Amino acid sequence: MSGAPSARSLLAVMGSRASFLRLLTITAAIVVVFGVLRPTVFLSTSNLQFLGLASPELALLSLAIAVTMLTGGIDLSVVAIANLSGIVAGTVMIASGGSAGGVVAGSLAGLGAAMLAGAVNGAIVAGLRVTPILATLGTAQLLGGIGLVLTGGTAVKGLPPLFTDVARSTVAGVPVVFLLLLAVALVLTLLVSRTTLGFRMRMLGANPVAARYSGVRSGRVLVSTYVTSGLLAGVAGLVISSRASGADADYGTSYILLGIVVAVLAGVDPEGGYMTVAGVVIATLALLFLSTGLLALDVSSHVVNIAQGALLITMMVVNRYSGAWSRAVRERALVRIARPRRA
Amino acid sequence: MADVMAGTTAGTASEPTAPVVAARSLTKAFGGVLALDAASTAFSAGEVHCLAGENGCGKSTLIKILSGVHPPTSGTIEVGGSSYGHLAPRQALDLGIEVIYQDFSLLPNLTAAENIALPSFLTHRRRFVARAAVDAIAEQAVARLGVDLDLRTPVGDLTVADRQLCAIARALAHDTRFLAMDEPTTTLTWREVDALFDAVRRLRDDGVAIAFISHKLQEVFSIADRVSIMRNGRIVATGRPEEYTHSSLTESMTGRATSALARETPTWRDKPPALEVRGLERLPLFTGVDLAVGQGEIVGLAGLLGSGRTEIAEALAGVLPATSGTVLVRGRPTRIRTVTDAVEAGIGYVPEDRLTQGLFLDQPIGDNVLATGIGSFARFSVTRPQRMARAAAGIVHSLRIKAASLQDSIRTLSGGNAQRVLIGKWLIGRPKVLILNGPTVGVDVGSKFDILSLLHAESLKGLGVLIISDDLPELVSTCDRVLVVRNGRVVSEVDRRDLTEKALLEAVAA
């Protein structure tokens, strides 16, 4: 309570719930198991580099969903926003002839479009009071359609090398996009845990009625939340188009469900009131460790789906029951502590 | 069962023969404290046994153990002569143990009849529901209770009092032998309480053992055949209500001597009123409302449910803004269209429903206290954790909120402490006016006294306090004057000199 940085306050930023520790344990177990079974493939530099390259887009999209979950909502339009961001960015870059200025302008245009799409989500959710799941399902469809019109149904190709090289470059062996993810995660952690907006997002998600009685302007908070979500999706869109050397209105639709899986696996409360940025990043890695590990064992990709689903359900079941169990243990311990004092 | 007990006369408190349900040295550690400490007591057929005590004294824990919600840490439960280490909720239900909690646990979408009949369908393991059977069971239960209840109405559309009767009828519908009622009168008006008491007495005369949890002394005296007083998880005294007086009962409950909340009127007449309202209107809820609360003054707002008193308060708080009228805070005109406007003008509002409107139950105590004032603990929107922790710790300390850590969730707190968190949430922002709607509802006697003294102390610093309450003794002991609301208008004012329960009751019911 002194306010001095302690292990406890650090843990509170990382993820205060026991589910976070379990996530760490499971992730470590996956790494150890596959590391022992297939050390040459699983722990190879190329596999780790693949993870470093493949994880940022999923992690960013999951974070975009998780932020809205913190306020008790959800964003199903993140993939559509990401694609739109990539399409706008790519179109501007190609139009400006691939110069450095064009790449920057294109990226900013892509992010701007993503934030605008987020603002639309926020306006529908906060202003028109449409349930987030329906509102964002609608905008997902809408934005996907706009993307198709912009591209004429084909992929945006021929992005400037200056832009596509970003995804290929590494710093000390670590892909630049992974470093970008870490930077974004850091900023988002600060936003969620150290700003008035983050505080109000959490309160709004925990109890919207009490938030209203406490003077929280829920409209503003919700719009800011969906703009943040849109921005995160926009960054994911840039990462995707840089890595794939193109942008497509139909890319990565399976990421929506996977993103929700990652958020829930991380322990983010879909009912609102709790999220952990570090947990989402680690859950993304755990999911990818599991799939590359299984692929290293030469199993079919369908087994990968089964394993991912099983992991999610196991985590949910464990989280559900361990709470009650640890409470019971704590209570029994307290009796032993409380007894002698009264005697 | 009714036949067996037919000879029992009302009010007999002679030593009972075989108790229906008994607690034998029940102990329970819970949420960081020993909630129940070797508590032994017995509930006999045909007897209303009041459990009285402050919040956190273990009343609710005892009931929850008897009904199988919590297993005891040690001790045994006796039901009908058999001894149990613990009960499963279903097992308790099958043994005829029924509890009516404050929220009644009814299903709002189903009709009253369906709610009443449902548990007996469950206990008899019937899988198909026949309309006629449902109605028959419900009608029988309601007739036995001797009340008039519209069985076809969805429970969600019933009044609180009718929901309560519905919950009691539900308990009756499946051979309840032991009925525990957890603070059943908190949300009822006086007339509804009378109807409830009649139903309770009829149940008692029917041979049901009744545990009645209350901290309203008036109720203990009017309904109890036997009273047990609990403090710090122990049963400190048991006896017949005639053996106690108001003050001896209060002293047993709190463990300290009572002193009246007598106060000199400290109103600072030379300063503009903390709150002045002229011609406030929002049709059809209220119109032409004029009122003033001086700095350092505590004003009561009395009226029956539906009189418009809550709506007036919510308009001033910006929850449901008024359509016209003037509001001045310390002489400065303010327009209140949102809660944020009210907060900025210096008006705080402690709402009626603490759990849904006031608190963030799963969030830390510290963050709950800061929920309203977070903006003043940030620079350029970046929060300052040290300052936040200091301010939260300061308010938790000064309001004497019993909590192990600021990081604990509100759920770990008792009703009185939770209410103090809610008041602290406003005090931290130094409001000029604090409006409280039912500030001591569901709060025990000791905490109630503390909360009212706290308001008293704050008012002495210049805070204007407006209290809305059903609790007339509370208004009489706390307020400088009381305004009476009827049909959306302030119709009369009872001044300090004339402020007695009787005068107030007459003014309200007139």
TrEMBL record, chain A:
Transport as a keyword of this entry, yes or no, is yes
Q: Which residues form a coiled coil?
A: none
Lipid bilayer topology: Multi-pass membrane protein
Q: Which domain of life is it from?
A: Bacteria
Q: Where are the transmembrane segments?
A: 20-38, 50-71, 78-97, 103-126, 133-152, 172-193, 221-240, 252-268, 275-297, 303-322
Query: By its UniProt entry, which CDD domains does this protein fall under?
Result: TM_PBP1_transp_AraH_like
Q: Which GO terms describe its molecular function?
A: transmembrane transporter activity
Q: Which UniProt keywords apply?
A: Cell inner membrane, Cell membrane, Membrane, Transmembrane, Transmembrane helix, Transport
List the GO terms this entry assigns under cellular component, sorted alphabetically: plasma membrane
State its location(s): Cell membrane
Q: Does the keyword field hold Cell inner membrane?
A: yes
Q: What is this protein called?
A: ABC transporter, permease protein (Cluster 2, ribose/xylose/arabinose/galactose)
